[in-house]
Every structure is written in structure tokens, then in C-alpha cells.
Amino acid sequence: MQALKEARNMGILEPQERLRALTNYSSSVEIDPSVPPKRYYRSGLEMVRMANVYLDEGSYENAYVLYMKFMTLFLEKIRKHPDYASVPATDKSINQAKLREVLPKAEKLKVYLLEQFTKEYNRYLAEVKQREKHEQERQRREAEKQERLKQAAIASEWTDSKGKIAVPTPDLDDIYYPDPNAPSAPLEDVGIPDDLTSEPSEATSKIPSIDRGTKPSTTTSTSSSSSLVKPGLRTVVTPSKVMSHFLTLSQKNTFNNIETCGILAGKLEKNHLIITHVILPKQKGTPDSCTTMNEEEIFDYQDQHNLITIGWIHTHPTQTAFLSSVDLHTHCPYQLLMPEAIAIVCAPKYEETGFFILTPNYGLQYIANCKKSGFHPHPTDPPLFMRMARVDDGENERHFQCKSLKQNKRGPHSSDLNNLTANRKKSLTVEYRRACCTCRSFIWSQ
Ligand SMILES: [Zn+2]
Ligand SMILES: [Zn+2]
């Protein structure tokens, strides 16, 4: 009873409550009308892709959150989008199939997480009890010790009177021997580690344990969710080859004073977003703008390679690296759909590269609400965007591909083509062959 009271005082949630808080957090997804519904459908597929990675890695709370977000988004929220009616039937049916795949997974995870939360909670209560027992024992010993000291004082008065010296002896009872059954770490230090994706603690167990210490989560807005999918928390890893390959590919355009743009795509691994591909779509560029065309081709390519959209990259042939007003608007939907999405700007003339995001607390919503188009002035204070430091763990350099097509002299991976829809197959074959004969021809300049 005492333990239960302490748990409540500490704000420790009971298992059911904790699960409910996690579910509520997952449902707090909002639709932004400035992002076309089609992009939500694309992003939904990537959301499931990421959730599956979390599931494989044993990061069950993160997987559950993403599956729940996906369901909230497509069972409920997307219908409120003003352009919902414009979503093609094919996108809807692909989405329906995903929902059927996700639903049982989320249900299973829910049961599993509740079990785990219950275990953690019970373990916590047991420890509180244990601590109480130790405290009582300590107090008992302290009282005994005081009693002995009192006795010793009386005795010493007697011995001193006979001319002997009373030497205090160490009290063995004062030495605390830890209970071998008690948890090894001091309870105060045992929290939920930040890294939910840590390897399973029991190597022998087939189902990895999500035991991350003994203290269950207090609320999802504090310790538990600190490692969940939240804005800005995941690191984006950008190998330096992303820029060097992209600059090589865009050289011809740069020489002609035309911008080049590419999509940054990659994978989720241990809660890091790693850029593994730059995809150069068919595009139209001017000295200060660049527009992608046939985006379906990019999507097909990403689907074939299980890639997640991590942002975009473009050149400023004659200017420095910054985000123009048009760039801010181009970047906005990327970041609304993926909070970590970055915009890389390469300014070869100034040998400068910038890594940018819209300021999450201000710029993102400001630009989402700005309805102007073309180049137009924005207020600069507070700042709408900010620079990010490039992160690279060094290991990803060798895995990076500037479109894997470069490695294949005859065209894209044959498996890609086999999987493509028949009506796109022909045009893609032609385009990819052109790209593969010589990588540079993959840039469409005017
Ligand atoms: Zn720009
Ligand atoms: Zn604007």
C-alpha cells in the first residue's frame, strides 16, 4: 500500500494509464491544409516503412506510436483535408491495404506493451517495498547502536576509573551489505534511458525485452516520450559524398547558370535518419529556381528501394548558400511531413554548403500559413530558418549512392523495372538508360 502511494506521489503511471497516454500522444497528429493530400499519402507509406524498422529493431514504443499515427491520419484526419476529394482511387486503395496490414500489428503491440508496462510497474513497486524494508532495518540498527553507545559510555566511566583506556571498536552493523537480490543500480539513477532503440537486454530471449530499467514512465510528456518520434530528435546523417556527387552531377547546369535540385532519401537505422541516395528527378531550372517534374518516378524509385524522404538539395550557381523565399515554401511540406527534413544548399561559386531547417517553433508554421507565391519578402525577425551542423558517423560514406543507377551500365536494377507498372515501364526504361550510359545525362537542363 505504501509502495502504491509512493508511486502515485512520484507521478508514476499505472500500466493502463501509461498506455493510454502513449495512445493519446500518437493520436495528436494534425493535417495542414497547405500540404496536398497526395503528399500525405506518400508520407503515410514512409511512416509505415519507418514503423517497420522500429519494430524490427525492437523499438516497440516508437513502432506503436507511428502505426497509431498512421491510423489516426488515414482513418480520421485526412478526410477533413479540403482537397480530400482529389486523391486518386489508386492511392486510396494502396492506403487501404496498408491500413489492413498495420491494424493487427498495432493491436499486437498494444497487448505486448501493456504486459511490459505491467511488469515494469510491478518491479518498481517491489523495489520500493525493498527500499522501505532496508530503511526500517537501518533505523533498527541505528537505534541499537545508540543503545550500545550509551551502555559503552557507562562502562567506560567504570574502566577509566581503574586507569584503563576505553578504545572504540568498529561496529560491524554499521557496514551495509547490499542485498544480492536487490537491483544493482541505485534506484534514483534508474530511469528510462533515452535510447529506446537499444539492443534487447536478454540476448537469449526471442522477443526482445523492452525493459529499460526499473522505474516505469511517469507521463509520456516527460521521460518516456523523450525518446519517441518527436520533432528534431532524430539525427540526420549526411555523408560528404551527398554533396560531392551532387555537385559533379550538376556541374553542367551550374556552368550554364541553372539551378539543379535533387531529393535526399535514405533509411532509418537505430533512430538515425541516414541519407543513402540523392535522386535527381526530371526537372526545369532557372538561375534562381528549380522545379521537379514527374514526381511519380521519384516515388516509384523510392518504393522499389524502400527509401524514406529526408529532404532535398539544390544548387545556387551564382549566389551564396541560404534559403530564398521560394526555397522556404518548397521546404515547408518536407518538414511538416518529416520534422527532421533538411534542405541542403550548395553554392559552388563560394565553395559553401548550408544545411537548413525552418525554425520548428516559428518558421515552420509561419511559412505554412503564408499564402504568397513566387519571390516575396518575409520578415526576418524572429528567424524563419536556421543552420544545422552536418552529422556524419564516417561509416556511411561507402554506402552512399548518388542514384544507384550509376553502378548499372544497362539501366536501373532489373528488379526495379519488373516491379514497375506497365504504363510507366517504357518511359522509365528510356530515361534510366540515358542516365546510366553517362551519369551526367541524368540532369535535365533546358
Ligand atoms: Zn535556393
Ligand atoms: Zn511566403
UniProtKB/TrEMBL annotation:
Cofactor list: Zn(2+)
Q: Which PROSITE patterns does the UniProt record give?
A: MPN
**GO CC, alphabetical:** endosome; membrane
Q: Which InterPro entries match?
A: JAMM/MPN+_dom, MPN, STAMBP/STALP-like_MPN, USP8_dimer
Keywords tagged on the record: Coiled coil, Hydrolase, Metal-binding, Metalloprotease, Protease, Ubl conjugation pathway, Zinc
Low complexity composition bias: which ranges? 217-227
What protein family does this chain belong to?
Belongs to the peptidase M67C family.
Q: Please identify the protein, giving its name as recorded.
A: MPN domain-containing protein
Taxonomic source organism: Ignelater luminosus (Cucubano)
